[in-house]
Specification:
By secondary structure, the chain is of the alpha/beta class. The chain is built from 18 helices and 15 strands.
């Protein structure tokens, strides 16, 4: 067996410098003469052992090895991880089925040896400017209007420069995927030859890896922007390794501390600033900064076509008698004058736009909950004015008017005054709430608001008076005398 390094040092020192014999060294160090003899000449060292040294168990025959290998291969063919062979179970089967007479420890060592998997090795990749972009999804937390929510982070990375683009969405769906892709290409300034993504259902209609077929809308987008969609093999994140770590990088650098914003648009302003700031960064191993490489890869990108690809999910619902349309699982209001008409609803990743004959008539933050109704007060105010007694019970009023103002409306006896105050709220917004104190009528409230917000309008503007030139009349009089 190998000895400690200190013992080996003393054996060599006592031989070379003290001229002691092997017996003397053995007695001096209180170790075996065989050990001294083994390391005496320095042809053997304690940190190396002869290949194949140690005890051998001659009972481990080829038949035993094949039996153990067969057990492990059988386990690998099914997915039941909780019902696989242990080393002990293999040993008991060997004893029962093959008459094995060796020790269980020998089988344990053999199983451990056969189970050893070679460490994963990857080929370093290199890309030409504008050759490829890798894309992926991630998840992060943000506070929107005081509420903690999970947002989906869409990430794209240009492979030559490591330049990246990211954007937050409320959901991972086809609309968000296509919108993020289109906006990312606009950020990079063109389309690469290939875009590499995994086998997500939002992009793949059928198949996987090299046999995957893009969804109809993704295929149309790739045709429009003239790039080839490439899909990774299943569970092969290394095939898009440049973007795999980008989600974590964005979370750590752009979203710490956790952002507290009013809307997802404000969150995206933070993310795009982070993308732009990264262009001053210099990646280890590259001569140019990211920003300097941007101008290089942009020369190789395919220019974007004039038509901006429509990434929305588009429906043409009919407006019902309550001035509502249905989109996904929710209802959204439009101005009541469109009741009974067919409108166009375009659902983007985070927003919903409603059109009538090409004109925008309503806009909303998209709601991914179910069976919710979203009312815009302005859509109903003229209808409420025609039926003022309905004002305090109108769903658009109750959903949009704050509790303090609602209590004030309920104290008013005249329904027309209620409508008058609601109109004021539409004009002044939450500023009206500050004027409620000490007010008991719509007239008093309006006077107070006018005084606060229109105090400058009572000032009389200076008027420039032009004095007429009457000299011409004198000339006429003189001419008449002749």
């Amino acid at each position: 067996m190998a000895i400690e390094m200190e013992i080996y040092k003393q054996i060599r020192h006592l031989r070379e410098h003290e001229n002691l014999s092997q017996r003397q060294v053995s007695e001096h160090l209180q170790i075996s003469r065989n050990t001294v003899r083994r390391y005496w000449d320095g042809d053997k060292v304690p940190w190396e052992r002869k290949e194949g040294s140690g005890r051998k168990n001659d009972v481990i025959t080829n038949t035993v090895v094949e039996f153990v290998r067969h057990c492990l291969e059988e386990d690998a063919q099914h997915k039941h991880k909780k019902q696989r062979h242990t080393a002990h179970r293999i040993y008991t089967r060997l004893v029962a089925e093959k008459g094995y007479s060796g020790s269980e420890s020998g089988i344990r060592s053999l199983v451990a040896e056969l189970k050893q998997q070679p460490q994963n090795a990857f080929i370093p990749l290199e890309y030409y400017p504008g050759e490829a972009i890798q894309v992926d999804w991630g998840e992060a937390t943000a506070y929107l209007s005081g509420n903690s929510i999970k947002v989906q982070i869409w990430c794209m990375r240009e492979c030559y420069s490591d330049d990246y683009y990211c954007r937050a969405f409320l959901r991972q769906n086809e609309e968000s995927f296509l919108e993020g892709m289109r906006d990312g290409l606009e950020y990079f300034g063109g389309a690469p030859r290939r875009i590499i993504f995994d086998n997500a259902k939002i992009a793949v209609k059928e198949g996987f890896g090299p046999h995957a077929k893009a969804t109809d809308k993704y295929f149309a987008m790739s045709a429009h922007y003239a790039f080839t969609p490439v899909f990774c093999n299943i569970a092969s994140g290394n095939e898009k390794g440049l973007v795999e770590g980008l989600v974590g990088f964005v979370r750590r650098n752009a979203l710490v501390p956790i952002p507290k914003v009013k809307s997802i648009d404000d969150l995206n302003d933070i993310l795009i600033k982070n993308c732009l700031d990264y262009r001053s960064h210099k990646v280890t191993g590259k001569e140019l900064s990211v920003g300097e490489m941007v101008s290089v890869y942009r020369e190789q990108l395919t220019p974007l076509p004039p038509y901006r690809y429509d990434t929305s999910r588009t429906l043409q619902p009919k407006v019902d008698e309550f001035a509502l349309i249905r989109f996904d699982y929710n209802r959204y209001s439009v101005p009541y004058i469109y009741c009974g008409k067919n409108v166009t609803a375009k659902g983007m990743g985070n927003t919903l736009e409603i059109y009538y004959r090409g004109e925008t008539i309503a806009s909303y933050i998209r709601d991914y909950a179910r069976e919710k109704s979203h009312y815009t007060l302005e859509h109903y105010i003229e209808l409420i004015a025609r039926k003022p007694r309905s004002a305090c019970n109108a769903a658009p009023v109750r959903q949009n008017v704050p509790a303090d103002l609602m209590a004030f409306l309920n104290r008013l006896s005249d329904p027309k005054e209620v409508v008058r105050v609601i109109r004021m709220y539409i004009e002044y917004g939450d500023e009206l709430l500050h004027a409620l104190s000490g007010v008991c009528s719509a007239q008093t409230l309006e006077a107070k608001l006018v005084k606060v917000f229109h105090s400058d309008s009572t000032e009389v503007e200076s008027v420039r008076v032009i004095v007429p030139d009457l000299h011409c009349y004198d000339l006429l009089m003189k001419g008449g005398e002749h």
